[in-house]
Design goal:
The strands form two sheets. The protein has an eleven-stranded mixed beta sheet with strand order 1-2-4-5-6-3-9-13-12-11-7. A two-stranded antiparallel ribbon has the order 8-10. The chain has about 350 residues and is of the alpha+beta class. Helix 1 (about 1-35) packs across helix 2. The chain is built from nine helices and 13 strands. The protein has a single domain, classed as Thiol Ester Dehydrase, Chain A (Roll). Keywords: Membrane, Transmembrane, Transmembrane helix.
């Protein structure tokens, strides 16, 4: 009897040992080796390894401080070749952002303008945890973003494409340190399809971003405004994707916070922008957002969930080509609290 129990115990210990060795090799060692190169092909470091790096660097670096560059400073850039469109992820993104579960199969509709950023989520985490990234990866807040489609995003469906994420510039500001991060998608033919510049802020104080209530848009004439009311659910879905629009450690701790009864969760910035663009397409037509197009957005006050918001849409002044910009503004329903402001232009 004791011999049988002893053999069973040894078998369990052996199985656990093999499992630990396997996990360490797959998630730690292999990921470490992959990060030695800046250009990869399909296979990427595991999220487990990158989260460990995230927590380690968050604990060892204070926010709002630009750390001194090392003597062996290099560009922080990662490129992935032979990428493929993740159709199930696209379906979930479209449903969560308000486009509908069958989007973009509807005729004449392109893949949503914000979607390529979700394909870059692991590359973003690789950049934020890189040894040469000069800010703490924790507590980064998205303050501005520009999006550009040079060709229809549907080009990414036609074959392998290339994704790249690169740190462009650091800037000191009154509120802390800003960093511009470039994201891009290039088609199988080598032509640029989609580009985005994220401006993230690492705060050096607990106060709100000082410009949050400034730069409000000029209120257009009432007859020129389309107002849409949207319910904000308690969960915006796709949390593993939306996490990267906030870069806050609270996203990692949100599950624990909910277990202790906290309900003060914020809607992710990328979700807010995606909802604005989805509503614009529904009410102004597909042509407004058809490539080539430029979208610029500023992110203001955080949006608590659940709740209700009002999205305002209006046409601006035309340029020499006769085209007219389309402005949008998401604000708290029943108040003047601004969450997102943006412009769509040609």
């Amino acid at each position: 009897m004791f011999a049988i129990m002893g053999n069973a115990r040894r078998s369990v210990v052996a199985a656990l040992s093999v499992s630990c060795v396997y996990l360490v090799y797959v998630h730690i060692y292999s990921s470490y080796k992959l990060l030695k190169a800046n250009v990869m092909s399909e296979r990427l470091p595991s999220f487990v390894f990158l989260y460990i790096k995230y927590v380690t660097r968050a604990l060892t670096r204070r926010t709002g401080y630009l750390h001194t560059a090392t003597t062996r400073e290099r560009d922080v850039v990662y490129t992935v070749l032979n990428c493929r469109l993740d159709t199930p992820l696209l379906r979930r993104f479209c449903s969560a952002a308000g486009y509908g579960w069958d989007y973009p199969d509807t005729e004449y509709r392109d893949i949503p303008t914000c979607f390529p950023e979700t394909l870059c989520r692991r590359l973003l985490l690789m950049v934020l945890t890189d040894a040469h990234f000069r800010l703490s990866p924790a507590g980064l807040f998205r303050v501005r973003q520009s999006l550009k489609t040079l060709q229809p995003v549907d080009e990414l469906k036609k074959g392998p494409f290339v994704l790249q994420v690169r740190v462009q510039e650091y800037r000191q500001s009154d509120a802390g340190v800003e960093v511009d991060i470039s994201l891009s998608a290039t088609s199988r033919t080598g032509c640029p399809v989609w580009e985005s510049i994220l401006t993230l802020l690492s705060k050096n104080t607990e106060r709100l971003y000082k410009n949050a209530h400034e730069c409000q848009p000029d209120e257009p004439a009432p007859e020129n405004v389309k107002q849409i009311e949207v319910n904000v659910p308690g969960t915006t879905g796709l949390q593993c994707v939306w996490f990267f629009s906030g870069y806050s450690p609270s996203r990692l701790l949100s599950l624990a916070a909910r277990l202790f009864g906290s309900r003060s969760q914020n809607a992710p910035s990328l979700w807010m922008l995606s909802v604005c663009l989805a509503e614009i397409e529904k009410h102004k037509g597909v042509g407004v957002i058809t490539a080539p197009v430029n979208v610029t957005a500023q992110f203001k006050e955080p949006l608590l969930v659940p709740g209700r918001v009002t999205i305002k849409i209006w046409e601006g002044n035309g340029d020499q080509s006769g085209t007219r910009d389309l402005s949008f503004h998401m604000q708290q329903h029943g108040s003047n609290t601004s969450h997102v402001m943006g412009v769509i232009s040609r």
